[in-house]
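[Automated response] Your request has been received and processed.

Submitted sequence:
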Amino acid sequence: MIEKYHFSEKEDFLKNLRNFSLQSKERSSLINNELIHIAQKDTTPDFLEILNNSDLISLMREIRDNLDNVSVNLHQEYKETDSFQNAKNNRFYSFISKLSELVDDGEKTNVTTFLNKNRKCLGMADDLFDLQELSQIFSEIERRELLSNKDNFILIHYFGSFNPFPHNGHIEVAKNANKESKESRIIVTTTATNPNKPELINTVSQRLNNLQRGFFNEDYSTVLGLIGDFSNRKHRIEQLLIISAFDYENKSRFLIGSDMLQKRVEEALKGDEYALFVLKESNTIFVSPRNENDSNQFYKTVGIARSTFSSDIRILPTPNHTLSGTLIRSFPLVQRREFCPNDFVNLE
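Generated structure:
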């Protein structure tokens, strides 16, 4: 897979998307550039999944206003298809069909409920034609005021290398966090570099694509094309704050494993800026224990985080799937499939 998309531009896009002081011309240029990326098959409109309803309405209006200009000046690339792409297309068009039907019926509650439950489908509009159809439906939703603004789902950031693919353990951890906080969306991102994991073998694009495949059936999740970079701790904090800016409480919530909590606590005790940011009192940290971890050490670490840094720690149930990605990667390809959430995931 060719990495044509500059992920730093994705970061800038999300950052500026929350900048409501942008002049209309600047905002139009911002939308234009993102539509071009979508048309060139380098990204999907995943950002639509994390917007509150009022922002979603206004952004769809801006997309609609910019689509004609982009379509005229850009040749749409041919999309290669496989079983995953076909499944995604089928799901998107089923979603569009049902949404159109509900809009025709004109019941605001039904439209709002359906959109909130199927928000993941918004990010499956992976070309300008899909977006055109979607924007036309939203034009009618806006005209008839069929979408309630009373949405308050929270965002929980689940980041990691997911190398080379998300396995059943990753999915179970995300599900546990979602059950703990019912109005949540789990925002899944991957990392370009991680000094603690020099063995990363797949490219960023390959891992991001596999995340989209692995989390395809997890409606509570959004795989966001915001690429983490742990080589610059200060920049990493800025990246985490981008996602919290979309949370309805403007709050950072993280989903991490118990081993990572222990590492962050050790670093924070030494004054590490990034670790202190993660553990600070205003954030919420959902921690997934691991069976192989010593329970006494785990609860000791949780105690230090709570007493020393006033951390808001929420302990999740221990997952049934506890094999690490490192171990799964050592298995033959046929055996790896047993640990995958679905058949869409690329194993190599």
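Summary generated for your ticket: The longest strand covers residues 184-193. The first helix runs from residue 7 to 17.
If you did not submit this request, please reply to this message.
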